[in-house]
Each structure stands twice: as structure tokens, then as C-alpha cells.
């Protein structure tokens, strides 16, 4: 069943430090309509950290990074799941909930990492490195997951690699995350040269400029960033890890080197922290809008479907990842 509806004034309290009242007033009718439709459709909305605040704080029932959303997708009892994220996330929800309706408000919401590799590429890698296990970042299509031994996210990649008990792994598709993993394990990591179009644009020079312009600045960086960026950071971690860092340490001034809606969503929860906001937007995440969410719930479309011949092995790879977290 859908979560109980929260009154609009209480919802606005969540975002009032980052959203003017006039902007909220423009969003409020759609938010009310969506929350009513959720109850009618017995639906739950999952929203990634990169979603805009009116979605993240206004209509989402479950929020977090891709690992958190994957885990929660196995626990919801709603009939309908609306994925406010990108296509591979909706596929993951469908893999874990094959008998539920999974909606993605805009099927064009893709991912540069997912598009950087195909199932055929993985098969060729296996031929080149026979017997070497394949660890696949969840930012990939179901087709690629189906060719893999186990999936991972940025928050559990090192644990997943080391759980295999081998001295060598193929890690794909994110080159920079793979390099970050290689720096934190004795396992040899063979990387694929895929990149996130948001994170690859950051540079170490930009980070140094942020520090020069802001005294006592704490720098948090996502491991999909280039190595020179990570070398300049005070903390490197997943989106959930960065949010947890702010929750626990409450730095006076912080910059998050990641997609800029992440800063908005964390800032809404921490008005006492000053946020410096570099703004690299993900064009795919921003295809998800309140209008699209409303239409998806109203029409129960577009729904994500996966061919069973792909879904079975792909789910096995995702299940193998979730099993690492349960050990």
C-alpha cells in the first residue's frame, strides 16, 4: 500500500529553506494530485538523490542512492512502483519485482554509463580474460547485468570485489570507479572505459579553486569522478555516503562534487550547513518531472518490461550483490 499522505504545509516545511514559496505554490497542485493517485493506484514512488526537490521531498516515499533503492525495491508491498530515476534503475526494480508494475515516467531517461557497454562487449571480455569474474556496476542495462557474475554500486564495490575471493576481476563500465576500487584492494582490477557525463566534467583544478574561494571548505566527491578530483577530496563516497557524512559531521561549509540536485536535497535537511554548489546537471535525471509522474500514475504507463531470458540471469547478478550486504 502507498504511504499515508502528508499535508502540503508539512511537505513545504521540508524544502522551505531552499525553495521560495512562489515556486512551491506552482508545484503544490501536482504534488497533491500525485499523492492522491498513489493511494488510488496502491503505488510507491522511489526517487534517486539526483531528483529535483519537489519530487524528492514532495512525492517520494523512498529515497536514496541506487543500492538503497535496489534494497527497498525488494521490500515494498505496493502493486505499482514508480521509479523517479533513470532506465537502468527502473529495470533493476522490475528485476526484483517481476510481478509488479514498474513505471518510468520518461523512457528517454537514460545513462551515459549504461550506454557505454553492451552484452556483446561483456562476452568479448570473457573471451579475452577466460575465467575472470565480471563485476558490473548497477549503472548498466539488464542485458549487461545478465552477462555478469555480480553487480555492485559505488557504496559496496570494494566489498563485492573482495567477496569473490579471486586475485583478478573485470570491472565495468565506469573507469574512474574501477580505478578507485583498485586503489582500495589488492585484487587486480581490469576496467572498461565508460564515464558518467556528469562526474567526468569535474577537475582537480576546479576543486582547488573552490578551496581558494571558500575558507574551511569540506570537499565530498563521488568515486565516478576522475582521480585528480578524488585526490583533492576530504571524503570520497557514494551519494548515500556523502549524505551520511553531512548528517554525522555537520561541516560548517561543504561542497559535493556530484550532480547538483544532490546538494539541494541534502541542504534542505541541513539549514545549518553552508553548501557551495557546483552545478553539473544530469540531463537524463531531469527528464523526470512532476507532470510525468502524474501522467504515469494516471495512465499506468510507460511500464518497464524485461525479456525473461535476460531477466533471470540479470536478477541473479543483482541478488548476488544484495547477498554480499547480508553476510
Structure description:
The protein folds into 3 domains: 8-110 and 285-299, NadA-like (Rossmann fold), CATH 3.40.50.10800; 114-196, NadA-like (Rossmann fold); 199-276, 3-Layer(aba) Sandwich (Rossmann fold), CATH 3.40.50.10800. The longest helix is centred in the first third of the chain and has 21 residues, at 21-41. It has 15 helices and 12 strands. The mean pLDDT is 94. With 327 residues, the chain is α/β, with parallel strands linked by helices. It has helices at residues 8-15, 21-41, 53-56, 66-73, 87-96, 119-128, 142-146, 157-163, 175-182, 204-213, 227-232, 239-249, 260-269, 290-299, 308-326; strands at residues 43-48, 62-64, 80-84, 101-103, 134-137, 150-152, 168-172, 188-191, 218-221, 235-236, 253-257, 274-276. Helix 4 (66-73) runs parallel beside helix 5 (87-96).
In terms of topology, how is this protein built?
Blueprint: H1 8-15, H2 21-41, E1 43-48, H3 53-56, E2 62-64, H4 66-73, E3 80-84, H5 87-96, E4 101-103, H6 119-128, E5 134-137, H7 142-146, E6 150-152, H8 157-163, E7 168-172, H9 175-182, E8 188-191, H10 204-213, E9 218-221, H11 227-232, E10 235-236, H12 239-249, E11 253-257, H13 260-269, E12 274-276, H14 290-299, H15 308-326
Parallel strand pairs: 1-2, 1-3, 3-4, 5-6, 5-7, 7-8, 9-10, 9-11, 11-12
Amino acid at each position: 500500500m502507498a504511504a499515508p499522505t502528508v499535508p502540503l504545509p508539512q511537505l513545504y516545511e521540508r524544502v522551505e529553506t531552499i525553495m521560495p514559496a512562489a515556486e512551491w505554490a506552482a508545484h503544490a497542485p501536482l504534488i497533491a494530485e500525485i499523492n492522491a493517485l498513489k493511494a488510488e493506484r496502491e503505488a510507491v514512488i522511489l526517487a534517486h538523490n539526483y531528483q529535483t526537490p519537489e519530487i524528492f521531498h514532495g512525492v517520494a516515499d523512498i529515497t536514496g542512492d541506487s543500492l538503497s533503492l535496489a534494497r527497498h525495491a525488494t521490500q515494498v508491498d505496493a502493486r505499482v512502483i514508480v521509479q523517479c530515476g533513470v532506465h537502468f534503475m527502473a529495470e533493476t526494480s522490475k528485476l526484483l519485482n517481476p510481478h509488479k508494475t514498474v513505471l518510468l515516467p520518461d523512457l528517454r531517461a537514460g545513462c551515459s554509463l549504461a550506454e557505454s557497454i553492451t552484452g556483446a562487449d561483456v562476452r568479448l571480455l570473457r573471451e579475452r580474460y577466460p575465467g575472470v569474474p565480471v563485476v558490473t556496476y548497477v549503472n548498466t542495462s539488464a542485458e549487461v547485468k545478465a552477462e555478469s557474475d555480480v553487480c555492485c554500486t559505488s557504496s559496496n564495490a570494494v566489498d563485492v570485489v573482495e567477496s569473490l575471493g579471486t586475485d583478478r576481476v573485470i570491472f565495468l563500465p565506469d573507469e574512474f570507479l574501477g580505478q578507485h576500487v583498485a586503489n582500495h584492494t589488492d585484487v587486480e582490477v581490469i576496467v572498461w572505459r565508460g564515464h558518467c557525463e556528469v562526474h567526468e566534467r569535474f577537475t582537480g583544478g576546479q576543486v582547488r579553486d573552490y578551496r581558494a574561494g571558500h575558507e574551511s571548505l569540506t570537499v565530498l566527491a563521488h568515486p565516478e569522478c576522475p582521480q585528480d578530483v578524488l585526490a583533492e577530496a576530504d571524503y570520497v563516497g557514494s551519494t548515500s555516503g556523502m549524505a551520511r557524512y553531512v548528517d554525522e559531521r555537520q561541516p560548517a561549509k561543504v561542497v559535493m562534487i556530484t550532480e547538483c540536485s544532490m546538494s539541494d536535497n541534502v541542504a534542505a535537511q541541513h539549514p545549518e550547513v553552508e553548501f557551495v554548489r557546483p552545478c553539473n546537471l544530469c540531463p537524463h535525471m531531469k527528464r523526470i518531472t512532476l507532470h510525468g509522474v502524474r501522467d504515469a500514475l494516471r495512465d499506468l504507463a510507460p511500464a518497464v518490461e524485461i525479456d525473461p531470458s535476460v531477466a533471470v540471469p540479470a536478477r541473479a547478478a543483482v541478488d548476488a550483490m544484495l547477498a554480499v550486504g547480508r553476510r
